């Protein structure tokens, strides 16, 4: 008998657990106490549709207490089933209503489904965000490099959150504006004297167009002087010109050496021919003696002419080129 009682109690407890799971009775009481009109059947149908009733009911209670009575249960369920964050959307709508920011439920759900944090966007609309840009390097017209760092104060643009560009685009545009402003300055001293001129020029370009933010101000936090880029470029150009000139000179030297070697080869060839011709002279003289075309007197006369010619050449040489005469021992 006792076993049957225990089994009966367990079965009753299990049935009550299943009942209160599919029919959240206490959640219905909480909703009724907060003034939210919802039935137990609707809560039961949420369980069947795999929608957590607590999430929907708590969101409806928060919206009702904040005076947002245009938000219905079907809207919240549809947004949850679409993969949205119901609690985040309701928080954003309540914050926007308290801050007098125009934000409809349809716009908030669209922003949330687009992957952006709509609650954070509303907070950024109330409290603007300060973004520090990385160090931007630019060169003025006098060739001096300047390293600038800016602080951009932005506010979320609710209307542009869907499809608008993010922080990376804003930072890139601000960096481009700083480079353009410094590059158009005649000297780097003008930039150092009036750094606010960069902010004015960058703000006048409307860099927040097409982005999810509205730029409130751009403040130049720091400007440092970098390298003399103009002088470095001139030095590099001079080094390049020197290398080109050295290459051309080396080419001309190589051509001159090749020409000299060619001339030496031709001179050696000519000397070889002269030696060959001189070697044939004694043979020709011997043949002339045998044939009677050359006499002894003609031979001595030729020798005298050679000696006379050699003496004239010796006399005509400079004194330092003449060989010293050998002294008799």
Radius of gyration, Cα only, in angstroms?
Answer: 53 Å
The SSE order reads HHHHHHHHEEEHHHEHH
Main sheet record: 4 strands, antiparallel
Percent range of helical residues: 55-70%
Q: First CA to last CA: what distance?
A: 163 Å
Q: How much β-strand is present in the residues?
A: 5-15%
Parts with pLDDT < 50 across at least 5 consecutive residues: none
Average pLDDT confidence is 81
Number of strands: 4
Shape: elongated
Number of helices: 13
The secondary-structure class comes to alpha+beta
Which key terms come to mind for this protein?
329 residues; alpha+beta; four-stranded antiparallel beta sheet; 4 strands; elongated; Flotillin-like protein FloA
Question: Could you explain how this protein is built, in words?
Answer:
It is a single chain. By secondary structure, the chain is α+β, with helices and mostly antiparallel strands. It contains 13 helices and four strands. Strands 1, 2, 3 and 4 form a four-stranded antiparallel β-sheet that branches. The protein is elongated and about 170 Å long. The termini are far apart. The relative contact order is 0.06.
Summarize the structure.
Belongs to the flotillin-like FloA family. It is a single-pass membrane protein. By secondary structure, the chain is α+β, with helices and mostly antiparallel strands.
List the helices and strands and how they pair.
Layout: H1 2-22, H2 25-33, H3 40-48, H4 53-65, H5 73-81, H6 86-98, H7 105-113, H8 118-126, E1 129-132, E2 136-139, E3 144-156, H9 167-183, H10 188-193, H11 196-203, E4 213-228, H12 229-291, H13 296-316
Antiparallel strand pairs: 1-3, 2-3, 3-4
Helix pairs in contact: 4-6, 6-7, 6-8, 9-11
Protein name: Flotillin-like protein FloA
Pfam families: FloA (PF12127)
Region (Disordered): 308-329
